[in-house]
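Table S2 (continued). Query chain:
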Amino acid sequence: MRGGFGLIGPRRERHTVPAAELDALALPVGDDGVVIGVDAEGRPAVLGVNRATPYEVTLIGGLWTAQVLALRAAATGARVAVETGRGQVWSGLAQAAGGGQQCVTLHEVGRVPPQGASAGSPVLVIRDCGMRPPRGRVVAGPWQSVLTLLPYLSPTAPRLLQNSSLVGVQRVSPDEAEQLGRLMNLTRAAVDSLPTLGDGVTLWCTPRDRQFVMTQGTEAETGLLGPARRID
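Corresponding output:
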């Protein structure tokens, strides 16, 4: 015994790696966030929605993908507030998420109350408000990201795309693909691929990067939401 310090612990050798062997190490560490699928090489694609700075996301796609993102954000400990005019399609998810905890709440369009987001309680607001979503009362802020779902390219899309830090595009018509190509400065190959994307495939774009991601539901997600689909 050592006075005030308890028992002397076991003695073991230190874990060391020679400098010459460091290049052989490969650690699968990526950005912190929600795993939204896999990229073309089969590597996990991660969306960091819990941020200390405002983060706006626009998804031109299907309800299924937005709902998978809601479930996975809730699984990371975020609270999810859904602003929607079709609460019936979200009610099952809200009841099933969180294992009895109210981590997904539903609100009428224009009636999302202040969420009190913080580092210890981040929030994702999902706006499922149709083709012409009104300006939201609750906006992106520290630890509160906002994802706006558009089923198709709408007249409000250019403004939303311009203000978004991240844009997701699922299968669209050839005319919509051409418009998106001009709005987002996409390559010819990306524009040509948009009308042919499979269900669950999304082209995620930042001002500098483009990445195709395949989202596949887990067994629990598929049991609750059904298989991946672009059209609701």
